[in-house]
Amino acid sequence: MTGFDESVSPPARVAELGEGISLDELHLAARNHGMPLESLRYDTTPPGLHYLLIHYDIPALDPREWRLRIDGHIRRPRTLDLAEIQAMPQITHRVTMECAGNGRARLEPRPVSQPWLDEAVSTADWTGTPLKALLRETGINDDAVDVVFTGADHGIERGVEQDYQRGLPLAEALDEDVLLVHTMNGQPLPPQHGAPLRLLIPGWYGMAQVKWLTRISVLDRAFDGYQNVTAYRIKQEPGEAGVLVSRIHPRALLTPPGFPDFQTRTRIVERGSQELTGRAWSGWAPITRVEISIDGGIDWNDAELGAQPSRYAWCSWNWTWHASTPGHYELCARATDAAGTVQPVGQTWNLQGMANNHAQRVPVVVR
Ligand SMILES: Nc1nc2c(c(=O)[nH]1)N[C@H]1C(S)=C(S)[C@@H](COP(=O)(O)O)O[C@H]1N2
Ligand SMILES: [Mo]
Fold this sequence. Notes:
This protein has helices at about 25-30, 80-85, 130-135, 170-175, 225-230; strands at about 70, 80, 90-100, 120-130, 145-155, 160-170, 180-185, 185-190, 200, 215-220, 235, 245, 250-255, 260, 265-270, 270-280, 285-295, 300, 305, 315-325, 325-335, 360-365. By secondary structure, the chain is mainly β.
């Protein structure tokens, strides 16, 4: 405990049934914006439209003063500057990133936290150097278990004062696709996305992609920090240890057709053929099937899949809707991946609203 009372840093809770979004939640939502769903039309999300999630404040880091420290259970601890990291071999991965809390605001009862609907997902081209070679060079001790990544941001969460930190099992950290990235869509990382350096673990939910990285420490035991042991777990009861949140579950979203009503976001569509499009992704395996429903998930139709441009990026899909009868419709999409996992239509509730991939619902009026 840090001596702050619950008015400063309240414990986790779920809302009462029917309790509306609070000003605290609105404050979080206004800071951490989602991707406008019409941006699903782009293969890579244009700068500024990528969703954002920042637990505390964006730290002010001068890239010339900034250093990365690598230490812990290794034989050769070292400190690197940005130029040294940029002089190492460089790789670009196209990666779809999604916040583990996506969909939380629709859960009943609602976990009180960042109130995402469907839009905490985006895709970018990330460039940097593989972590594996860099870590290997430091001479990892045989007793190494976890690798801890520390960001420069600091805050209190549920009464626990902390730097933002995430631990990763050594074997995952040594996966050849894990990068230390300094470039996003060909430009230097912007402040809000982790400048000057962030971690990229393709296929994992967003919480693992530590921004404003300043330190990498190798531990001889499992990391027991807040973001691994308390926050990002799937649990039903407060006392439970729960299950670690890791890779992204399959999900499809559709680009809302027609034009919207300002307040309700209901779509207005003209009678006739409608080319519906969208994206689907999974951090476990390639997408093998996308299905579309126009009646809220009763009947399903197979969409045509586009190419999957990279192992970790969303793929496009399309389906032609013959919207011949005026009236009210509810559009849904669901994805299946090569691991055989079918996206559920309804919610699978958990205490913190993590890793929920229930189907999007888009109200449409055909006139
Ligand atoms: N240092 C630090 N890294 C962080 C976070 C943070 O608050 N601090 N938020 C995490 C979460 S929960 C998500 S979903 C992603 C969001 O990345 P983005 O804002 O670049 O889209 O960053 C992750 N990395
Ligand atoms: Mo997140």
